[in-house]
Amino acid sequence: MEDFVAGWIGGATSVIVGHPMDTVKTRLQAGTGYQNTLNCILTTYKKESVTGFFKGMSFPLTSFAVYSSVVFGVFSNTQKFLTQYRYEESNSSSSLSDLFLASMMSGVVSVGLGGPMDLVKIRLQMQTEPFLKANLHSKPRSKDLWNRPMYQGPIHCMTSIVQKEGLVGLYRGANAMLLRDVPGYCLYFIPYEIISEWITPDNDTTSNPYTVWLAGGIAGAISWGTATPMDVVKSRLQADGVYNNKYKGVMDCISQSYQKEGFKVFFKGFTVNTIRGFPMSATMFLGYELSLQILKGNQTVTNP
């Protein structure tokens, strides 16, 4: 249970740190006309001021904390189960195969829970135009709604998606998310373990905050950087439908994106992803590890 609680705390802190750059990343990847990262930042600030970078933050602040709780809880408990099954001791060091399987399990579970959350977050982040300007062929019944955004908040966004597309609509882009998160979490937890062990002195039996912060940041940069191509596809699929529908599925999104923008389109947001991945993941792991130590009464904590 401590792993789930510590994951919740780590997730909440990471959202606060990473959400502004996550908004920039989403808008770049969704293909809404921004030239580069700096242009996206300046345009967002000019049109929406600082608040534009925090669009849709209230929802992930609560939901992503639960999501992180489940991901870290599943990873830690799967890792412990596999270690105990192999060596009959839950506190034995995990093998690379155990870390790999636990990471894959976290990736699979993350999609089931995180798909709808990520969809709502991206839909809210992508609301840069009023209804009438973006959707001239489908005017709302009341004129006072013409200059309002499509969604009034996370609950309205979720109910609108269900009414329009059914429950299956909440999992738009889930296949792309699965292809992103399963390898993504392998390149998240495994580098963290390896780097932590490498930079921790042999005589140090506790988790040093600096070690956790550095290892978590590097692992996050690696994971998010390598996940960028499929993250682009996922973001486009999930942003699709705010006003119009362009893509029929993962392969159609890949095909259309490549035909219109070339191979480089799959690396849109790579810089933002990598830079954002460091502080966000560093904060995530640090919040997780410190919370876990407090919850366990400052016992030795060596694994996420």
TrEMBL record:
Solcar repeats: 1-81, 94-198, 207-294
PROSITE patterns with a match to the protein in the record: SOLCAR
Signal peptide residues on this chain, from the entry's feature table: none
GO MF annotations in UniProt: transmembrane transporter activity
SUPFAM superfamilies: Mitochondrial carrier (SSF103506)
Gene3D superfamilies in UniProt: Mitochondrial carrier domain (1.50.40.10)
UniProt entry keywords in alphabetical sequence: Membrane, Mitochondrion, Mitochondrion inner membrane, Repeat, Transmembrane, Transmembrane helix, Transport
InterPro entries: MCP (IPR002067), MCP_dom_sf (IPR023395), MCP_transmembrane (IPR018108), Mitochondrial_Carrier (IPR050567)
Main location: mitochondrion
Subcellular location: Mitochondrion inner membrane
Pfam families listed in its UniProt record: Mito_carr
Family classification: Belongs to the mitochondrial carrier (TC 2.A.29) family.
Protein name from the UniProt record: Solute carrier family 25 member 48
Species assigned in the record: Vombatus ursinus (Common wombat)
Gene: SLC25A48
